[in-house]
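Example (one chain per record):
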Amino acid sequence: MSRRVVRQSKFRHVFGQPVKADQMYEDIRVSKVTWDSSFCAVNPKFVAIIVESGGGGAFIVLPLAKTGRVDKNHPLVTGHTAPVLDIDWCPHNDNVIASASEDTTVMVWQIPDYVPVRNITEPVVTLEGHSKRVGIISWHPTARNVLLSAGCDNLVILWNVGTGEMLLVLEDMHTDLIYNVGWNRNGSLLVTTCKDKKVRVIDPRKQQIVAEKAKPHDGARPIRAIFMADGKIFTTGFSKMSERQLGLWDLKNFEEPIALQEMDTSNGVLLPFYDPDSSIVYLCGKGDSSIRYFEITDEAPYVHYLNTYSSKEPQRGMGFMPKRGLDVSKCEIARFFKLHERKCEPIVMTVPRKSDLFQDDLYPDTPGPEPALEADEWLSGKDAEPILISLRDGYVPVKNRELKVVKKNILDNKPPPGPRRSHSTCNPDRPGLEEVLEEIRALKETVQAQEKRISDLENKLCQFTNGTD
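Predicted structure:
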């Protein structure tokens, strides 16, 4: 009778490898702000890193190909009046990034495909609604232009970036500082962790808590939680003895964990990064010099340790590339962007395979850049799974698509009929208002035409500069 001693898994031999020195991003003054966010955001076009800057907050955006030493005069994205705490690329537009800051605002930026000459100082839209610093932002995974922000005022606000309006405000749900917020796969639920030691699952549209678990980890230090693709919840935290733990929970029975493992004794909060296609969770601790990774399966013990990538230098932050930005010809299943004090070092996770052919089992169809819903559809109660794309022929990023913000016109809200306290009740004023509205409409059309012309010229310039590289 044959006994299977080793668990069968195609990810058992995944290994991490740093890139060569000339493919790193050198001379970047990474932010020293004490805040448990990743400080780095990447997509198939750009890497963005929160940096030190005098008099306000800034982050730097570099095209992925622009490796090597970064010019000290490289333009920054500077618009915040206090340090930037979190940044996040829009999953449906690779040229749009949101930033959250200590100055209580969230700003959304359009990044051109070419390297600008001066600092980018004008955001496409500024979202103001928090009364204290904003430390967390996250785009909706399937609905266009829906952005979540969470601040130190214990509020979670959902915005429609396309109009600059608040869609929903989740208040009176958190009694203390919110540590992290994560969406489920189709964006119908949120999971949050809080300083009051509770993990909450929230339906944002019904504005109600669906499930709640007090003290998933007994320690006093911060907890993190993310959704798995099948709806389970993965948490990291600390035991009473300050040992770092990871846990897996099922919403149907939230009282007892499916799995709870102790790892080591360290102070750094473990940031979980999840790849739903391979069902691997990567754990990166701030101040650690290693990345541990685990495979999540349906069979006991459910959370299987795979391996640890170790290096000498501790990490200040970490960026995680979406699946469509990976090199499928090299069997690359994840790419991290590790922040040091003065540089950013890409680390490639690879499954060793002898064949050069496309590996179907490693690359199932993955969420692409097209949104499945509009903001209004999602708000009205619709849900949709992400629109998937195949990576068989690799992914080519689409050209710069402009984010258009259409602010609601206050003149459209006509005053209610009835007696008005006005000196003139005669009609001659009526045509005057109509003329003004007509003029505004004409001006709007002119501005939109000029914006389109500028965008076309920028694209032509981009093609010209690409041609002369």
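Caption: Residues 291 and 309 are 5 Å apart (CA to CA).
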